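User: Predict HECT-type E3 ubiquitin transferase's structure from this.
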Amino acid sequence: MENRGQKRTEAVDEWPADKRACSSSEFRPSTSNSSAQTPMSSSHDADMDTSSSTSGSTRSEGDGEKDSMYGSCDSDSSIRDYYRRRSWGDQSKFKNVLSRLSEEVDESGQLAALTELCELLSFATDSSLSSLMADSFSPILVKLARQDSNPDIMLLTTRAITYLCDVNPRSSGFLVRHDAVPVLCQKLMVIEYLDVAEQCLQALEKISREQPLACLQSGAVMAVLNYIDFFSTSMQRVALSTVVNICKITTSESLSPFMEAIPILCNLLQYEDKQLVESVVTCLIKIGEQVCHSSDMLDEVCRHGLIQQALHLIDLNSRTTLGQPIYVGLIGLLVKLASGSAVAFRTLLELNISSIIKDILSTYDLSHHGMLSTSVVDGHCSQMHGVLKLLNELLPTITREQDIEVHLSSDKEAFLMERPDIVEKFGIDLLPVLIQVLHSGVDVYICYGCLSIIGKLVSLSKSDVLLTLLQTANFSSFLAGVFMRKDPHVILLALQIVDTVLLKLPHVFLKAFTKEGVLFTIYGLFSPDKCSQFTSSVFDGRRFAKDESSCKLQKDAVQNLAKHVWNNHFSVESPNPEKVVTNILQKLRSLSTALTAMLSKSVNDVAPTQEEDEIYNLLHQIMLDLNGKDPISTFEFVESGIVKALVNYLTNGQHLGGKADNGAVDQLYLIEKRCEVFGRLLLSFSDPSLEEFPLLTLVRRLQSALSSSESFPVILSHTARLRNSYATVPYGRCTSYPCLKIQFVKEEGDIVLRDYTESVLNVDPFVPLDAIERYLWPKLNPRKTEDLKSRSRALKEKGSSSSHSLSDSPLSSPEGTSSFELRTVTSGELTDFHTESVEKEQHCPLEEDGSTNTDHPGQFDKEDVSPKLLFYLEGKQLDFTLSLYQSILKRQLEVELDNITSAKLWNHVYKITYRRAVKSKKSYDEHHHNVAQSSLSRRVSVCNCTPFFSGMLVPEVDVERSSAACDVLSLLKSLEGINRFRFHLMCCERISAFAEGRTDNLDTLNVAVHGVSQNEFVNSKLTEKLEQQIRDPMAVSVGGMPSWCTQLMTWYPFLFGFEARCKYFRLAALGRSPVHTQSMSHSNTRVSSGRQHNNGNFPRKKFLVHRDKILDSAAKMMDLYAHQKVVLEVEYNEEVGTGLGPTLEFYTMVCHEFQKSGLGMWRDDHISLECMKSSEAEDSKFLVSHFGLFPRPWSPSLSMSSGIEFSEVIKKFVLLGQIVAKALQDGRVLDLPFSKAFHKLILGKELTMYDIQLFDPGLGRALLMQSPQNW
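Assistant:
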C-alpha cells in the first residue's frame, strides 16, 4: 500500500474536509433535523404556562415575544415556498451534473462534477432528488467507482453513493441493481487507500439498511470485517452496524458467511468499546438462533473463545458494562450453547461459572434498590429467568428407567458423575443464594425455577457432600416454608426433593423433617381431614385442591406422590403423626393451654393479685422456654398455640373485632395494664441464662412464622401492552387501562328502586364503590321532584358561568388520570370559593326522599357517610372500602386461589345486583348512652391510655384465610407498639408504683429503656410482594392492587420498608399518570434519569413571585394550583432564570417566613404584632425551638391575641398545609423543624400526657410527677 493506505491514529474529524470519510448527517442541515432542534431546545418554556402573583393572567408579559420566536402560520408558509423554489433549483443543478458526468471523459472534469454532486447531495432534501434522477445517477457512479487509477475520483464517488442513499432511501435498490455492492466489497478486500475504504464502509452501511440480502450475497460480511483492526473505533462501529443489519435476515441456509466471521467476532469481544461489543453480541445472538439445532455448528462456534469472552462479559466485575437487553440476550446465547453443545457444557463448568452466577443471583433484592424504573426492574427479572434457564441446562436431569433421555443428556450426566468436585462447588456457591432468593417473596415462575435447580443439585450430589450442604443451609426449615405455597407444581417439586433426600440420607433428616413440620404437611396432603385434628389449617393439603382442574398435572398427582413418600419413609417409624410430636412442642402446648385456661377463669375464683402473679409467672416461663437452649422450629412455635394465647392475653380476646363485655373503658384499661406487665417482662428481663434480648427473639420468631404462614397473593397483569378504554361509569372518560364489563340488575322483590335499562356497561375498575353509587342513585331513585329538577338546573347554569370546569374538581377525577384545564384569572379574581361549593353540591348524592339537604351541612355529611345502595356479586355483599376490581378479585381468589388469568378477568361480564340500603334506627336513649360512653372512653384514652391500645383492636384481614397469620400479625402489632411506647409503659409502671407506695423516688423515670430496632419489624417477603404489586402496570392507583396491600398498609405499616411505604404513599396520594402507565407497559431500554417520577409525568406550570411578598405569592399560587396535579416552577419578578434552583429557593424562603415571630402560629412565639412592626425585633424575628415547632394554644373565647386575629392564624395553617402537600407532590424538601408531637397531630393521632415532653420537657415532667388521680 501507499502512504494513504496506512492506518490513521488521529480522530476522523482531523481529516481534511475534501478527503475524510464522513457521514452526510455531519454536513446536511436537512429540514427535518434543523427544524427539530430549535423547538427542542426551548420546549421547556414552550409547553409551560406562566402565572403571576400580581396579575391574574396565566401568561407572562414575555410570552408574546416567545411566540414570535417560533414563528406563525405566515412564516411557515414562506418557509415552505422557499424550500419549494430551492428544490426546483436543485433539480436543474442535478440534471446539469448528470449530463456532465455522462459526457465528461477527462478526469479533471469528472473530479469537478463529482465535487459539485457531493456538495449538492450534502445539502439536498427529500424533495430535491427524485427517484428517477437517483436511478439515473446509479450506473454512472458505479462505473466511476470501478476504476482504480484516480483515488480522488474513487473517494468522491463512494461519498456520492453514501449521500445518495441518505437523501433517497430507494437509491439503495438502484445501486444494488447496478452491482454497486460487489464493487464496494472489492475495495474493502484489497485496501489501497484507507480513506476510500472508510468511505466504502459508510456506503455499505447505508445500503445494508435497505438491501441486507444483496449485501449478504455479495460477501459484505467478510469484506467489512476482514481488515477491521486497521480502522478507527468510529469506523469499526460502522462496520459492525453493517453486519448487524445483515444478520437480521439470517437463515439456516445462509450461515456460511457468518460461520466464517465467527473468529473475528469472538476476537472483537475483547475490545472495551461498549457500543462495539454490544453490536458484536447482537450478531452472535442472531447467529446462535440459527445454529442452535446443530450440535456440530454449536461446537464450531465454541472453539474460538466465545465461552471465555461471554463469561467475562456477564461477570459483574467486567470492565465492559452491557445494556440490560444485550446482557439478557448474551445469557440466552449461553443457554443455547449449553443445551446443544458438549464443548460449551464442559467449558462452562470448567471455567467456574457457578461463582459468576452466584454473584448475579445475589443482586436479586429489588426491595432495597430505591425508586427503580420499570424497565430496569423488568430487565432484572428477565435476567433472573435467563440465569435459571442456564443453570437448568448445566444440571441435567438424572436418567430414570421410565424416561427416554437423549444421548447428550447422558453425556452431561456422565461428565458430572466423573467430576463430583464441580457438583460440590455448584452446591456450595448456589444452594444458599437460591434459598435466599426463594425467601424474598419471588413470583411463582422464579420460585419454580429455583426449586428445580435445588432438586437437581440434591439428585446429583453424593451423600456425604449432600449432608454438609443441607445442614449448613437449614434445609428442613426451608422445605417447610416451600410447602406453605399454593401452587401444585411447586409442591410436587418439594415432594420430589424430600423423596430424594430421604433416599440418600434416611436417618439424618427424618427427625429434622418431623421437627419442622414437613412430616405433618406431607400427611395432610393426602389425608387433610385426619391431619386437621392435630395441626392447624395452615399445614393441611386442602388449600390448592381447587387448582388442579386448571393445570396440566395429572389428577391427584400431588396426593399420590405425597402418599408414596409417606409410605416409603415415614409410615414405618410413625404410622400416626400425632405420636411423633416433639417434647418441646408438647411443653409449649401445655403452657399455652394453661395461659388460656387462666385467662378464661372467673375473677371471683381467685384474688386479683394472686391471679396477676400467676399469669406473670406463666409468661415468665414461656419467655424462658422461647429463649432457652432447646431449639424451637417455626412449626413448633406456630402449632404450640403460644401466639394465640399471647394475643388473647394482650388484647383480652378483642383483636378480631369481638364485642367488649364490660365496656370500652374497662377494655382499654385492662389492655394497658397487660401491656405494661408484658412490656416490663420483655424490656427488663435480667435472666443471665438468656443469650439474646427476649423481645428481639420473639419478634424474629414471629417474622419467621409470618413468612411461612402468610399466603397473600401477588396478582400481576402479565400484559405486554395496556389498551385504552372508555369508562362509562362513573365519570365517562378515557382510561389507559381496560374496563370491567358490568351488568347492574335490581334485586328481586325490591319495589322501590327502578330497573337499570342498559345491559352491559364499561366501568372504571379502580374507583371506589361509592363513586359508582353516586352515578347510579339518580338513575334508580324514583322520587325526583320538580323542585330537584329546578335546583339542578339552577346549579348547572350557575356552574357554567364559573371559570372552573367540572372536570377540574377533585371529585370528578379521583385517580388523577385526566388532565386539568387551567382557567384565565382576572386581576381581581384569584379563587372562586363559591363556585367550588356549587360543584360540591352538584356531586352530592341525593337524600332518600329525593332532595338535597343544604340547610344543615353537618347533618348532610353524617347522612352521606352511609351508603344508599348495597351491591352483591354472586350473592355476597361487596365491601364499600374496596374498589370494584378489588371486590371482584377477592371473589375470584376465593374460588380459584392464585390461578387468575388476565384475559378471563377482563373479558367476563359480571352481574352485580343492587338493592336499597336499610338504615337501622336507634332509640334516643341508646343514642345518648353511646355518646356518653364514647365521651368517657375518649376521656380515659387521652388521660390514662396511649392511643395505641385502642388501635390494637383491629379487624381481621379478610384476604388471609389462615388464622395463624392473623394471630402472628396481631401479636407483631402489639409488640411493635410496646417497643415504640416503651418509655410510656415504663413511666406508667413507675407512676403506679409511686401511687401505690411501692416507691417514693420518681427520679427513676429517666431510666434508659433499651428496645428493638424498627427494622426488625420489617418483613422482607411482604415488602417484596408489595413492590411487585406497585411495579405492575395495572397498579395505576391503590384500587388496582389486591385488597391486602391496603389493609396491611393501614393496620400494619411497620411490616414494610421505608422505600416501599414511600412508593405506596405516592401511589395512594397522587396515583400514576397515564404517561407513566404507558411507559410501564413497554419493556424498553430506557435508563432512569434520576428525576422524580412525578416531575416527568405531570404538566409543569411557571409562576411569577415577589421576593418581598413571599407568603402572599405562595397564597395566590395555592389558590390557583392547590387542587391541580401540576409541577410548579418559580421565576422571580424582574429577575432572570427559572427551573429547579429558583423553585427550591422559593420553598426555602416560604419555610423561613413561617418560622418568623409574630405570626401567632407557634408555641414559642411570644412577640406581639406591635413588637414585630418595630425595628427592635428585626434581629430576633426567627423562632428558635430546640424541640421543634408546635402550634400555639388559643383560648376558645378569644378571637384576637396580641393584635393577631385567630382567623388569620387559621388561614396561615391552611396555607402551610397546602405548601407541605404541594412539596410532597412535586418532590421538594422543606426546611420546617416540626416537633414529633405536631407530626402526630398532622397524621390524625391523639396526643397523651407523655407527648408533652416532646416539645416541653419541663412541663411534661412536672405533669407526670403529679398524683395520677389528678389526671
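The first strand starts at residue 49 and ends at 52.
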